[in-house]
Design brief:
This protein is of the alpha+beta class. The chain folds into two domains: 10-177, NADH Oxidase; 196-255 and 267-349, no CATH class. It is 39% helix and 11% strand. Helix 14 packs parallel to helix 16 (333-349). It starts with 9 loop residues before the first helix and ends with a helix. 41% of the residues are buried. Monomer. Its EC number is 1.17.99.6. [4Fe-4S] cluster 1 binds at residues 191, 194, 197, 251.
Length: 350
């Protein structure tokens, strides 16, 4: 714990923390009180409506989100930090190409952001001595977007992601701390009457401004959902095999986004891969090639499930059908069912 010291100039300390953050490659650093406020009621209503789908952890840890000191005792302040990650401006717009969410084409951001936040915490300790803290990056029940909003890093877009005049291609991370830093002021919202993200969502998952039903969201369906993808959504998924960026691709503010940290540049050609090639990966190849990549956590069976759907949505080429047939007897019923569906789709088109 940090003993509150009347000799410490906390306003000056905050500016030094911001400077240290910039030196470490953070695009923005801000400070908020560890009080999520009305956002907690919105979360409870969203959970009560079942919009979280199978993400049980969202419901299980709701109270930890609501009360930061329960997650890390002594917490009174949240230092919120953002890192730009936009790897390139390419779009996988051919049906036989694999569309992979841009954040997942390179290194796993969890580790990168957490180690960078740890360096920021070390820099703070070098300035004032030991203090109580814990670092997070999408790794615990933390209301990341709300704290970033309060800390002046941006506003909540209608797609519910953090948005700023520098766009939305940003990872967020936090330091929960016992330092009594002065909070920053939130900035004005600049979505106005724009509803581009609501119109662009392939599955209409943004059911109202600022409200996403995860059960319809392609990111949820391809990453979080464990079992079969509901048939009504399969044709709408197109060639997206891991996540979906459509609500960000159409956002006018992303015209001003800068290319991000080279740490996140694509590996293994994931920005231009063909579905057929990825479908051929064995489980060993999947695990080896995606070591240190967030995609690895869905496992090989879900990977094949997702690619089968995408291939079923593509053109009825002979090599696509042959590739699917090669997995028709896969030991996992999840894979077999989606392969059978995809073959049916291709047959109907041929």
């Amino acid at each position: 714990m940090h003993d509150q010291d009347s000799t410490v100039d906390y306003a000056a300390l905050k500016e030094k923390i911001r400077e240290a953050g910039q030196e470490l490659g953070f695009a923005a650093v801000g400070v908020a009180r560890a009080e999520p406020g009305p956002a907690v009621e919105h979360l409870r209503a969203w959970l009560a409506a079942g919009c979280h789908g199978e993400m049980d952890y969202m419901a299980r840890h709701a109270e930890l989100r609501a009360h930061p000191p329960q997650l890390h005792p002594g917490t009174i302040t949240v230092i919120s930090a953002a890192v730009d990650y936009l790897p390139h401006a390419k779009i996988a717009d051919q049906p036989e190409q694999a569309a992979i969410s841009r954040y997942a084409q390179g290194r796993d951001y969890h580790k990168v952001i957490r180690s960078r936040l740890q360096k920021l915490a070390d820099a703070i300790a070098a300035l004032i001595g030991p203090f109580g803290y814990r670092v997070f990056s999408d790794s615990a029940p933390v209301m990341e977007v709300e704290f970033a909003r309060q800390a002046g890093l941006g506003w909540r877009g209608k797609h519910t992601l953090l948005l700023s005049k520098q766009g939305s291609w940003r990872f967020l991370g936090e330091i929960y701390t016992d330092l009594p830093l002065v909070p920053d002021a939130p900035i004005e919202e600049h979505c106005g009457t724009c509803s581009a993200c609501l119109s662009a969502c392939p599955t209409q998952a943004i059911v109202a401004p600022y409200q996403v039903d995860a059960r319809r969201c392609i990111s949820y369906l391809t990453i979080e959902l464990d079992g079969p993808i509901p048939e009504e959504f399969r044709p709408l998924i197109g060639n997206r095999i891991y996540g979906c960026d459509d609500c960000q691709l159409c956002c006018p503010w992303n015209r001003f986004a800068q290319l991000g940290d080279p740490e996140f540049s694509p590996r293994h050609g994931l920005d231009a891969a063909q579905l057929i090639d990825l479908f051929a990966w064995t489980e060993t190849e999947f695990n080896d090639r995606l070591a240190g990549n967030p995609i690895r956590r869905i496992g090989h069976a879900r990977w094949l499930r997702n690619i089968a759907v995408a291939m079923g949505n593509g053109s009825p080429a002979v090599d696509a059908a042959n590739a699917l047939k090669s997995r028709a007897e896969h030991p996992d019923p999840l894979v077999r069912e989606h392969v059978a569906w995809a073959l049916q789709q291709l047959q109907a088109k041929s």
